[in-house]
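Design request, tokens follow.
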């Protein structure tokens, strides 16, 4: 019902509204900047001639320029095309993991895995006197500043189960 009503208003007097819009005075475009008029260059042959003329002084200066490049001597590496890393990272074994083959086995020193992060946050939450920032830093080979930031800004979720009587009250 609503579609029919809107269609009536939309199609009402369409032709006269279209003629009125077409017969309106067209707005004049904004003036262009003088540098954007490329057709003016064609009107002045001296400018065209200046553009395409070769400058002998510049050509002689260009001919005096001489560039010589030498490649460094190629050194052949002994041992074939093996790709060896420049800096060997120290790795440490992870503390926990219950995913078996999917677990991360080695982590670079100064970093921790997700499982370790959740474990140390939970340990600190449950026993803050035992799991201090200093002990965590030593245990997981981390910097004390980073451990303090981790303990300050990341808090693990606590799962709480409500008794059935409380659920009905909620």
């Amino acid at each position: 019902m609503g579609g029919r009503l809107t269609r009536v208003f939309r199609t009402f007097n369409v032709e006269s509204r279209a003629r009125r819009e077409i017969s309106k005075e067209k707005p004049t475009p904004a003036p262009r900047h003088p540098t954007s008029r490329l057709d003016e260059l064609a009107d002045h042959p001296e400018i065209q001639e200046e553009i395409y003329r070769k400058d002998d002084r510049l050509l002689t200066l260009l001919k005096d320029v001489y560039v010589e490049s030498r490649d460094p001597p190629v050194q052949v590496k002994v041992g074939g095309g093996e790709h060896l890393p420049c800096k060997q990272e120290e790795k440490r074994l992870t503390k926990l993991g219950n995913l078996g083959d999917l677990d991360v086995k080695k982590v670079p020193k100064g970093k921790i895995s997700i499982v370790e992060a959740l474990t140390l946050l939970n340990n600190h939450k449950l026993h803050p006197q035992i799991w201090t920032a200093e002990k965590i830093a030593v245990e997981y080979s981390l910097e004390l500043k980073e451990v303090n930031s981790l303990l300050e800004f990341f808090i693990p979720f606590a799962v709480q189960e409500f008794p059935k009587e409380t659920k009905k009250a909620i």
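Comment from the thread starter after seeing the answer: thanks! Residues 91-153 form one domain.
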